[in-house]
Amino acid sequence: MADARLTITVNGVARELTVPEHELLLDTLRDRLGLKGAKRSCDVQVCGVCTVLVDGEPVSACTFLTADAAGREVLTIEGFAESEEFAEFERAFADRAAVQCGFCTGGFVLTLKALRDAGELNDREDIIAGLDGNVCRCTGYKSIVEAAEAIAAGGSA
Amino acid sequence: MSVGAATGVTPERVGRSDRRKDLGEKIRGKAEFTGDLEVPRMLHGKVLRAELPHARIVSIDTSAAAAMDGVVAVLVGSELGEFNPRWGHAIKDRPILAIDRVRFQGEPVAAVAAVDEETAEAAVRRIAVEYEALEVVDTVAAATAADAPLIHAETVEPGLFHGLGDLPEEEGNVCYRYRLDAGSVELDEAEAELTVEGEYEFPAVYQYAMETHTVIADFGDGEVTLWASCQHPFLVRAEIADLFRLPIGRVRVIVPYLGGGFGSKSYTKMEPLTTALAWKAGRPVRIQNRVDESMLTTRRHGMRCRMRTTATADGRLVSRNVRLWLDTGAYADNGPRVCATAGDAAPGPYRWDAVSVDANCVYTNTSPAGSYRAFGAVHTQWIGEMQIDELARKAGLDPLEMRRRNLLKPGEPVRPDGTGKPLDADLIGDVERAAAAVGWDEPRSDSVGRGVSVGLLAAGAHPVSRASVRMEADGSVEVNVGTTEMGQGARTVMAQIAAQELDIDLDRVTVQGADTRFTPYDRSTGASRSTTLAGLAVQRAAADLRRRLVETAASRWGVEPDSLAVRDGVVEGAGERAGYEQLIEMRFGFVGGEVIGEGEVRPDRGSGSYAEGPVFWEVCIAAAQVRVDPETGRIAVERMATIADVGKAINPLLVERQDEGAVLQGIGNALFEEMVFSGGYLTNDTLLDYRVPRIEDMPAAMRGIIVENGDGPGPYGAKGCGEGAQAATPAALATALADAGVPMNELPLTPERVWRRINELKEGERG
To answer: With an 8 Å Cβ cutoff, are B210 and A78 in contact?
Structure first.
């Protein structure tokens, strides 16, 4: 199996990597870079716990080749947590107890950030449509929708 | 007033929706789950699972796998002769790896430890197993047929924690049987004025905790260390010690955060195999299931049930007769307890002249079934409540009125034979609130139905929990309690209880996960028991700590402890006052030391057995409004209301959030989730084929009502929650659908089934 040499900007830092061409972005992040915030669960792009942003777009890192991230910017939950913008997301989730086991939370937060950046987080309909690719087994979603509404309102303010 | 009690008349630091203690690290992606841990020299394990549902193993050839670069160990069942041959907390019926025979598709047959997961997976594919197929017994009907082959021919011992008294002898493939008899059902049925009866099917479903079962094991010199995604670390410790013939203290179980549990990580799952593989490899090994493997590791029991209920013409309930068969798969897992709980829940919380329940837990050649939120109650409540409604219709009564007349009142015996704990809740008040919340008396159109459901779930498991609370020299506090934080908010609630008892800010209190070497014993995290029992142990431990601090002050000041009070972390009285930090310094004459309080909960009387219990009856009440589309059979859940009858809500927001989650799991269970087995093979083992509720499945309106009557046995009158809503939701949906004119005897209520039923009923009208 051939290796690929590539550079990826992860959370604002350029990383030079040599990885097998078939390596998945989730494994690169977790095993090579020690970024454990993206989780593994369904492996088939349904559950969203492995969500990271590649050039601002949410992708399922469990089915995304690291090689395809070459020359691009990857943002994980650890990176987003360092930004000023993050405080608003944290407050929205905290006030509504929209976190339970926490396994899915990073994926929801990053998806919401991408939706808001794209101007696609304006109302409840947007929220329901935009979060269709993120599963949460604990919360029943209501608290997440409430948090998303607060984030949506914050963005338009 | 107890010694140095906090002076507030009512609790102030409990009953508040404080921010979750774990929120910051979870939302930042910093919270560690077992699969995030790296242990030095750790290998990665993969499991070869049986291809056939029932077969004799003719031969296993591991030579090609063992010869691969990067493979450290390959393990098969025949190498484990120096350990106990079988495990299982209820029935010891399960080998670590299959020996001679496989009993379900997916049963572990061999395991590989290698330098990385990819190598281990490649090696597993190189193991050659020759099977001789045996007759497959894939349903409870096939398994209970007169000539059915025995799935377990050998004699098996009871496990360490079945908790059900003397286990009855196995009869054929029935591994456990629970009977409940009171009065003469036959007599009452013969004279009944109104009778309803039917046969019902409940599907096997998957808990889908998003974090799959993950274990890291290190088998050192006569000592095992496990990092495990397990709900019950102390029970896992005891089972591993028993299985590998070690003293209990030589097994250490460390539990980080769990990515959901819901019962799927209760008792012992992947720990024996991971431990055995680490023993063979001589190095730490991690096994992390993929979703398809976790589905085959544990699931909810499918069930067949026949039920008959009778009443007088004016709607007084008379008798209920239940026979049910739970499909526990190839190994018992928690099936016996599920069976007993289903049997207990089957009569429903009503006054009966006669009841007969015959609940059977049946082996089949399918994957093992164990615990899942509200087990037993979720199985039978929807059936019992459908029959109550049918009788109400026959008697010309509103379903709510039918329940008002027949529901038990507080203090009445719940088990019809009069044993165990009497009713400890106001069910009539509760169900009226739920019904009102979905607009019970509002006019409705033909395609809209409303339903209520009422049930009880035996909660608390065995009442043994211990805790300690340590105050450091700087006044910071650590709560040591074995409760597993799996999302329910236990660490927050335990911290609030300690903060209340010590009257200090929540910020000063930390709560860690269990490490059995240091954490006081707690039976388990499940059965809605943690706030009630572990919470009571924490309350006692914190009060004990407070007492020690007050006594330090009293002896220093030469006064009686009773003359002192505690306020905001300060002990005062007799003209003196001192903060906790000052008291610790006074006690040790030095800026160091610590004070530890201990708390213990154990059975007040008797042995705390299942028959004497439960610790409390968890209330399972919901109301629903559904709209059914007759053209497609699709059900829209328009309104849902649930009751959290919690005695006292320590953190009200977390209580509401628990029940919202339970409602969505209940919707999944009722409307679309189903593990489909065909000839013993699981046919939908990915999340593409097994659909769990998504955000669009949220009801249009969902209301959680908290009832605080202070009638629980836990701290401040609290009792547990989080399961009741799950048992009640499918029942409320099924009764609501029946109210819309579509009674269904089979879950899930998929559009196809509902559409067929609607058309059958139309045919019937025409015919």
So the answer is: no
b/e per residue B559-572 (b: at least 16 CB within 10 A): eebeebbbeebbbb
Whether B143 shows a pLDDT value over 80: the answer reads yes
In contact, B331 and B88? CB cutoff 8 Å: yes
Interface of B with A in 330-349 (CB under 8 A): none
Q: Which of A103, A108, A134 to mutate to test the interface with B (most CBs of B within 10 A)?
A: A103
For B729-758, write each residue's pLDDT tens digit. Answer: 999 999 999 999 999 999 999 999 999 999
Q: pLDDT tens-digit profile of B465-487?
A: 999 999 999 999 999 999 999 99
- Spatial contact of B486 and B211, defined as CB atoms under 8 Å apart: no
Q: How far is A122 from chain B (nearest CA, A)?
A: 17
Q: Are strands B317-329 and B576-579 parallel, antiparallel or unpaired?
A: unpaired
Higher pLDDT, B157 or B441: B441
Question: Could you give the CA distance from residue B251 to residue B226 in angstroms, rounded to a whole number?
Answer: 8
- Domain B394-460+609-766 CATH class label: alpha beta
Residue with tokens 């274990």: B215
pTM (global) more than 0.90: yes
Chain B closest-CA separation from residue A50 CA (Å): 11
Predicted ipTM > 0.95:
yes
pLDDT tens for B628-646 read 999 999 999 999 999 999 9
For residue A20, the chain B residue with the least C-alpha distance is B118
B chain contacts of residue A105, beta-carbon cutoff 8 Å: 26-27
Closest listed residue to residue A100, CA positions, set B563, B664, B375: B664
Superfamily of chain region B38-134+211-259+264-297: Aldehyde oxidase/xanthine dehydrogenase, a/b hammerhead (3.90.1170.50)
CB-CB under 8 Å, B210 with A47: yes
| Residue B102 pLDDT grade (very low, low, confident, very high; cuts 50, 70, 90) | very high
In this structure, what token pair is assigned to residue B384?
């019992």
Tell me if the domain spanning B464-601 has CATH number 3.40.50.1110: no
Tell if the CB–CB gap between B210 and A104 is shorter than 8 Å.
yes
Residues B485, B491, B494, B498: what is their CA dihedral angle, to the nearest 10 degrees? 150
In CATH, what class is A80-156? mainly alpha
- Identical fold between A3-76 and A80-156: no
Per the CB < 8 A criterion, the answer to whether B368 and B330 are in contact is: yes
For residue B166, the model assigns a pLDDT of 74
Query: Cα angle at A96 between B21 and B660, to 5 degrees?
Result: 100
User: Which residues of chain B lie closer than 8 angstroms to A127, CB-CB?
Assistant: 695
> Could you tell me the CATH superfamily of domain A3-76?
Beta-grasp domain (3.10.20.30)
- Contact assessment for residue B279 and residue B220, using Cβ atoms and an 8 Å cutoff: no
Tell me if B662 and A81 make a contact (CB, 8 A cut-off). Answer: no
Main-chain dihedrals φ then ψ at residue B61, nearest 5 degrees? -115, 110
Residue B484 C-beta-side C-alpha neighbours within 13 Å: 35
Under DSSP, the state recorded for A63 is G
Q: Are B758 and B640 in contact (CB under 8 A)?
A: no
For A11-18, the CB contacts below 8 A with 24+ separation are A11/A35, A11/A74, A11/A75, A11/A76, A11/A78, A11/A79, A11/A82, A12/A73, A12/A79, A17/A66
Contacts of A109 in chain B (CB under 8 A): 27
Closest CA in chain B for residue A144: B695
Distance CA(B283)–CA(B655), nearest Å, equals: 43
Structure tokens at B249: 């203290």
Q: Which residues in chain B touch residue A104, judged by CB atoms under 8 angstroms apart?
A: 210
Q: Which helix (H) or strand (E) holds A24?
A: none
Q: Does B657 touch chain A (CB under 8 A)?
A: yes
For residue B546, what is the enclosing H or E element?
A: helix B535-557
